[in-house]
Specification:
3 strands, alpha/beta, 104 residues, globular, 29% helix, 15% strand, 3-stranded parallel β-sheet
Amino acid sequence: MLKTINYDEIANTYDDRYESAYKPEGIASKLLDLVKALCAERILEVACGTGHWLKIMQGEAQVYGIDLSLGMLQKANDRTGSYALINGDVRKGGQILNLDNSDS
């Protein structure tokens, strides 16, 4: 049986993992390398959580984050950043947002 995690309940301590035993060294530079190699104009991070990676990618493109947990999005919103946050469930399918601002 799969264990269910309530991310709203752990949102306040979620980022502690980046300072403890789990150190995602090298991931940030690889993400930025990928964004630059693809000449990405817009980035959507699905399940963005507290916005840790959004903050790293801001300034490289228009950055958007979507997450189901309002608690996690609140933590992301508390960060100083240039990114848009969306509360939603991508498992529902369909168009959740239009990232293209053109009139076409």
